[in-house]
Amino acid sequence: xxxxxxxxxxxxxxxxxxxxxxxxxxxxxxxxxxxxxxxxxxxxxxxxxxxxxxxxxxxxxxxxxxxxxxxxxxxxxxxxxxxxxxxxxxxxxxxxxxxxxxxxxxxxxxxxxxxxxxxxxxxxxxxxxxxxxxxxxxxxxxxxxxxxxxxxxxxxxxxxxxxxxxxxxxxxx
Length: 173
What we know:
Elements: E1 2-8, H1 15-26, E2 31-35, H2 47-53, H3 57-68, E3 71-76, H4 85-97, E4 105-112, H5 120-129, E5 135-143, H6 146-149, E6 150-151, E7 156-157, H7 160-170
Parallel strand pairs: 1-2, 1-3, 3-4, 4-5
Antiparallel strand pairs: 6-7
């Protein structure tokens, strides 16, 4: 199974990228490709820009990457209770190609943050909207207090209960 994993974050040292990569590699029989959304940077979306530029190649390439995958793992960073500007812009451009951005692929939605909230606000928004954009959500998972619960050296979740919860979700693929 070809799994596409990425963080909805433009941080070069993204904790969400670490979580997405870890989770994707838990999926049985997965071949994992990890994307960096910085590779798909485009001007801020607006109807005026769309009329001027058409559909940027980066949006087309991102849409094709999603389409070529058998499954998708996304870990959402939370900025002020919402999506990061980088992800929202990429998503907005891509949705102009096709509102079915996720192309009926099974998807696991994740989120983490340094604090105890684990970016649950953005995760709730993402999971509520996912079906409207043709994602077949297999589950969602929030990892609270990333630096307390994720072993950076081993690249895995420390807490047994949290780790087992995520492992069970990855079996749903």
